[in-house]
Amino acid sequence: WLELLDLTKFLSLINTNRALPKRPYPSPSANQPHVDIMFTFPLANHQSLIVLREDATYVKSVVSELCLSAMTPEQLWNSLYGHFKKKPLPELPASLSRKHKSGSGKALDVDQSAFVASMDKIMKATRRKNKIKKAPKSVDGISSKDTLKNFFLSFDMHQVDRVAANELMGGLILLCGGKKSVKLAFAFGLFDGRPDTTGARPKKKGKGKKDEAPMPPKSLDGKELFLFLRSFLIVMFSCCKQSLDLSAEEVSRYIYDTAHVIAQDVMKFQWERKKQDRVNFDEFGEWYNEGGFETAPWLELLDLTKFLSLINTNRALPKRPYPSPSANQPHVDIMFTFPLANHQSLIVLREDATYVKSVVSELCLSAMTPEQLWNSLYGHFKKKPLPELPASLSRKHKSGSGKALDVDQSAFVASMDKIMKATRRKNKIKKAPKSVDGISSKDTLKNFFLSFDMHQVDRVAANELMGGLILLCGGKKSVKLAFAFGLFDGRPDTTGARPKKKGKGKKDEAPMPPKSLDGKELFLFLRSFLIVMFSCCKQSLDLSAEEVSRYIYDTAHVIAQDVMKFQWERKKQDRVNFDEFGEWYNEGGFETAPWLELLDL
Q1: Which residues, in sequence order, are CB contacts of 514 under 8 Å at separation 6+?
Q2: In degrees rounded to 5, what are phi and psi of residue 220?
Q3: What are 439's strand-pairing partners?
Q4: What is the DSSP letter of 343?
Q5: pLDDT tens digits for 421-477?
Q6: Of 88, 139, 326, 494, which sits 20 to 30 A from 311 (CA to CA)?
Q7: In 10 A of CB 250, how many CB atoms?
Q8: Rounded Cα gap, residues 552 and 318, in angstroms
């Protein structure tokens, strides 16, 4: 759930006007077990692709059975293409060649038997090389050869027993090992149909001779980009149970239309910026980061390790999962199911994300970075320090100082109201005609405060309130996380400011210590983040206050412990800085805290 820090990407997945597939698969009923939906991805023409947890489990089984995770796309392609080139196929009869146009080079034709035989040889060699034992059972009782035959048939749309080699490989990219960026870069070379696009360095000539001209960078035109996207989507659909509830014509149309719309959008972006009709990997990345993730969020699945890490077949659903569709209740659109401690889950519905979007708009938070909001907010709080709590309440709540100074509800609401008004004036933002769910912005802020006032003493530490507001502010996930490390670092002189220079003959001041957190401080940040997540999710309405508090406490505690254990084992240190936290996250932390991605609002 750390992925939720990237709030922009999170909210981009909302499209309240988008219809679900004609016959969404599946709808839970009294005779059917609970359906665990992992993702709902947008397709063209207001359709959706639903990825179930059992779909991901199936993908994991296929990857294991075919030994694909042990190979990068380049390693697999080099072996596969070598096999294909040894036995070129005869030309198709005239009656079939009208349906299918044969290619050459990387797009040479392959038939089913050659594909299955070549993959079988590669699998056996990979098992020997990596000493991998063959799985005792095949995927869903189907042999690996039958799995490969089905894979091939998904691409043989004209039923002529011919598919271009690079299109088959374009689908296999999803199932190989390697990072998303490496896979995408490889795809650009795979589908670039021009000669001399291997990416090899030009040869050096002898003395007195000019070196060869450099190879053109790998890039794709609209048709080539369409072919890659279509290959990717074919594999996605073939792995999703939803496709069983659609006709072959519907699946083909969904795939074609989506690949076509996205390829057109990329090429339009490229033409408007550079007046070029080809796009390279870096330029495609610019399109994706500047809004492409809204139309093609499913490209994130190229990072197979992170995708499959979300599976935990032993994890139970919440005691009373919210909600269960019934005859009297509309279809429930689940966006994410995030793991929590003690085998619990947090379910994020599309209406939850729509609510967050409304709150962010109402409070004008997207117009501010966390640092801008904190500077204003903390300035207001310091002007009017609160009196000490009576002894009867101070036993429940320990007051802090500095960034952790106490704030009461009225001071928080009044300060936020002033900041909102100033932000509207500065950015010329009109006040929304309607408040969120009929609740005024002040009431929203009161409810926000109450979520943090766990001891009901009308006191919350300022930095904990701000720790929750980080999720709702503008800015990138990395910027927000880095800010949080300064916000919760309780040591003096951790502002990050540069040391002052002394005069001549005097030593400069010692540099400020880098921002870092101990286990307790990290726990407080994670707890603040989780409090806001739960307060925005409808699931919490179906849980008692004690259950919500326990889920939050246990999850923040387990993750903070895991981070500090990682840090101690590597560096024998009891504090962790932002970069070290990033190392923990990238080396497996994303498995236990994928919700941090929601920081990218």
Answers
A1: 496, 577
A2: -130, 145
A3: 436
A4: G
A5: 998 888 887 765 554 456 788 888 998 899 898 888 899 999 999 999 998 888 888
A6: 326
A7: 15
A8: 13
Structure tokens at 139: 């995927």
Q: Identify the pLDDT of residue 305.
A: 67
Instruction: Write the burial class of residue 427 (CB in 10 Å: 0-12 exposed, 13-18 middle, 19+ buried).
Output: exposed
66 touches 146 (CB < 8 A)? no
Range from 211-215, 231-235, 379-383, 395-399 carrying the lowest mean pLDDT: 211-215
- Name the residue with tokens 């072996």: 79
Residue 159's alpha-carbon distances to 87, 96, 166, 228, 395, in angstroms, are 21, 9, 18, 20, 75
349 is written with which tokens? 């519905």
| Measured CA distances, 232 to 46, 129, 154, 237, 433 (Å) | 19, 28, 11, 9, 43
- Using alpha carbons, list the distances in angstroms from residue 210 to 196, 200, 203, 206, 213: 18, 18, 10, 8, 9
How far from the centroid of its chain's Cα atoms is residue 22's Cα?
Answer: 27
Tell which residue, 37, 16, 15, 18, has the closest CA to residue 26: 37
- The sign of the torsion formed by the CA atoms of 424, 425, 427, 432 equals positive
pLDDT digit string, tens, across residues 531-544:
998 888 888 888 88
Rounded CA gap, 194 and 260, in Å?
21
How is residue 110 annotated by DSSP? E
Prior bond to 513 cis, omega within 30?
no
pLDDT digits (tens, 9 = 90+) for 280-329: 988 998 898 888 887 888 888 877 766 666 554 333 322 323 333 333 44
The DSSP bridge pattern shows strands 279-280 and 334-339 to be: unpaired
Residue 385 contacts residue 42 (beta carbons within 8 Å): no
DSSP state of 515: P
Q: Where are the alpha helices (DSSP H) in 218-312?
A: 222-238, 248-274, 281-287, 293-295, 304-309
Alpha carbon 403 to chain centroid, angstroms: 31
What is the separation, in whole angstroms, between the first and last Cα of the chain? 12
Give the pair of three-digit tokens for residue 81.
């293409």
368 vs 484: CA distance, rounded Å: 15
pTM of the model: 0.53
Cα separation, 397 vs 8, in Å, equals 35
Which is it for strands 219-220 and 163-164: parallel, antiparallel or unpaired?
Answer: unpaired
What pLDDT is stored for residue 306 in this prediction? 60
Amino acid residing at 73: P
If you average pLDDT over residues 93-104, what whole number do you get?
83
